[in-house]
Amino acid sequence: MISVRSYAKINIFLHINGKRSDGYHDLQTLFAQTELHDTITIDEADRTELVCNVPEIPVDSSNLIVRVKDILSSRYGLKKEYSINLEKNIPAGGGMGGGSSNAACFLKAVNNLSDLGLSYCDMAEILAEIGSDTVYFLHDKPCYAEGRGEEIVSEAELPSVPVLLVNPNIHVPTGEIFGGGNLKLTAKADLSRMPLVVGYEELLAMLDNGLEAAVFAKHPVLQILKTTLLDSGADGALMSGSGSTVFGIYRTDEQLSGACSIIKEKFADFTVFKSRIKGAG
Ligand code: C5P
């Protein structure tokens, strides 16, 4: 039996460079994991069954964990079956890559548990097939990435500062936002020239998300949330991925705690997580 933590990510920046001929968008991003995590427990069994503590999470082949298992069985000759328990804390459809993280962590764990002998490249190929931000979760550290998000350029180090993750319980379909116009386009940069060790002020200066305007236009409460985070003491605030989670960044835990009370009072229906950036792995 093996039990692994499957961490949530935020995007410190997400620049959209343009639309590609395959319908996807070229982007450049800095992914960072936070301490918010799901827990996946896996044991070899007679038949594969996924159980999850959150009823809304599908446990059939639309779950990315099951997708990974099916690819391993159909194309990599995997004969084993697994009983999988998914204890979910990361909100689904919240821009924090919960499903993608689960897929990558399951793949890494099964590779170890059953000695599958898959290389990093094998795992990256499987994961790129089922999503765009899935490959990143093979890494423990923050990473610069480009392409659809699946091309990892380099790992980086960020300060492990407190971050308040606020999920307004709005599900934003990523495809609709990318396809809906109002995207802010940014010229492609050379990510290999970005700092590998990022300081606090540098981190704040990087905060930018080309999808924010499109999502805020559909869900104006997210703009209000971001403004409230900044007014209540965050040194920086940004929507993560295609939303709907908006995060605030703080230098100290005291700063975060004060802001957390204000946010909880003003947005009683939202889900708030006190967390921390996983800076250096
Ligand atoms: O690949 P993933 O499932 O994360 O993306 C969901 C949808 O978001 C894609 O089907 C695509 O419409 C859009 N997308 C995009 N460009 C990206 C990533 C996602 O247009 N780089």
Provide a concise account of the structure shown.
Helix content is 30%, strand content 29%.
- SSE order, one letter for each helix or strand: EEEHEHHEEEHHEHHEEHE
Q: What is the total tally of β strands?
A: 11
Question: What is the share of helical residues?
Answer: 25-40%
Rg, alpha carbons: 18 Å
Description:
This protein is α+β, with helices and mostly antiparallel strands and 281 residues long. Helix content is 30%, strand content 29%. Strands 1, 2, 3, 4, 5, 6 and 8 form a seven-stranded mixed β-sheet that branches. It has a four-stranded antiparallel β-sheet with strand order 9-10-7-11, covered by helices on one side. A hairpin with a 5-residue loop joins strand 1 and strand 2 (25-45). Helix 1 packs across helix 2 and helix 6 crosses helix 7 (220-231). The radius of gyration is 18 Å and the shape is globular. Bound molecules: cytidine-5'-monophosphate (C5P). Residues 24-25, 27, 131-133, 148-149, 174-175, 178-179 line the site of cytidine-5'-monophosphate (C5P).
Which descriptors apply to this entry?
281 residues; alpha+beta; 7-stranded mixed sheet; 4-stranded antiparallel sheet; 8 helices; 11 strands
